[in-house]
Amino acid sequence: MTLSIRFRTLELGLRDPFVIARATHGEGRRITTVIAELRDDADGPDGPVGLGEGYPDSYYGDTPETMRAVAPLLLEAIASVEAGLRGSLAEARAALAATEGLMADVVSHHGAAKCAIDTALHDLVGKRLGIGIRELIDLPGVLPPTDFTLGIDEPAVVAGRATRAADFPALKIKVGGSSDMETLRAVRAVYGGPIRVDANTGWTPEGAVALIPELQALGVELIEQPFPARRLDQLRWLQARSPLPIVADESAVTSEDLDSLVGVVHGVNVKLAKVGGIAPARRMLQRALDMGFRTFLGCMEETSVVIAASAAVSPLAEWADLDGCLLLADDPVRGLSIGADKRWRLADAPGLGLELDPAFRP
Ligand SMILES: [Mg+2]
Q1: 307-323: pLDDT as tens digits
Q2: 253: burial class by Cβ within 10 Å (0-12, 13-18, 19+)?
Q3: Which residue range forms the structural domain that includes residue 331?
Q4: Which among 137, 162, 187 is the end of a domain?
Q5: Residue 35 pLDDT > 60, yes or no?
Q6: Based on the structure, what is the number of domains in the chain?
Q7: What single-letter DSSP state applies at residue 18?
Q8: Å from CA of 250 to ligand 1 middle
Q9: How many A from CA of 268 to the centre of ligand 1?
């Protein structure tokens, strides 16, 4: 095995407090993410470094410690394709496509560690071949604009933040607090675009079904994960009564979850942090589309490493919520930019085209 990885755990402040219905670490004021630097000894001491990221969300069983614990197993698992990763474009693509299965064979889940390795591998291979991520993964299409997410807070506070985010083509509003409808009415009073609501498992079926007429009247576009992840019965019950699409997030971790969601919800929210990176996210999005789901591509409060990686597969998503790095007070990564139309612009540089700010290096 010639690949080696170094993880750096970063604690980053949030621009605004970010509270969701589920318990959140850092009391909604700061987040923990893990930046990965991947090297291949075969490239020599001055070889390229693949920059990756994994977001350790304890809800999904991931912590910085579990990432460090499983990373050696995952690297060992992909040793058989190391030569392919150093090969031609066609060989590298085949090797990258094989890593998801190889890693899944040694340990299931652990999306954060797998995402860190997968994103760093794509960056490394792109740098070696001198091509950008979109050419590397060969996924044509237009990047959809991202929405902007507002956490739970006092209705007037959320409305104030909505005013500041008025140039985004859609807003995602976290609900499941004590004053959801007051919040949504206050946002609607100051913002004209579509509103997506995300209850993060915090609603009840009776409560949710009673809200649907007003949610529709307020211009809500979709309802994300109203009930606990395993309550597919409740999700199915609500979807049968809702003209608005119900989107599974916590219930839709990997591609294998899609089968049980057929006839349950109309949409699924795919995230690199849950599914394990670029290649598995692409496969899950494509599979979801093939199965007739509407596709949402989301993120955690990540730096622009995962946001750039997500943007590369976003042509497969109808809806994009790729605002993680915009929620940070100070994104430690340079190279990704956003247009006035709120579509991400990947740097015209090899790999993900990103650089870690030297200030965040030890
Ligand atoms: Mg969600």
Answers
A1: 999 999 999 999 999 99
A2: buried
A3: 148-354
A4: 137
A5: yes
A6: 2
A7: -
A8: 7
A9: 10
Is 258 within a domain?
A: yes
pTM of the model: 0.97
Cα(207) to centroid(ligand 1), Å: 19
208 token code pair: 């949710």
Task: Single out the residue of 104, 133, 78 nearest to residue 254, CA to CA.
Answer: 104
Quick one: 282 and 318 in the same domain? Answer: yes
Task: Output the 3-class SS for 65-102.
Answer: HHHHHHHHHHHHHCHHHHHHHCCCHHHHHHHHHHHHHH
From the CA of 135, how far away is ligand 1's center (Å)?
30
Those residues whose beta carbon sits under 5 angstroms from the ion ligand 1 are 198, 224, 249
Please say which residue of 137, 166, 189 terminates a domain. 137
Cα(224) to ligand 1 centroid in Å equals 6
- Asked if 92 and 192 sit in the same domain, the reply is no
Ligand 1 center to 50 CA (angstroms): 29
- pLDDT at 327 exceeding the cut of 70: yes
> Which CATH number does the domain housing residue 65 bear?
3.30.390.10
Please indicate, yes or no, if residue 108 is contained in any of the structural domains: yes
Question: 149 C-alpha vs ligand 1 centroid, how far in Å?
Answer: 10
Q: How far is the CA of 161 from the centre of ligand 1 (A)?
A: 19
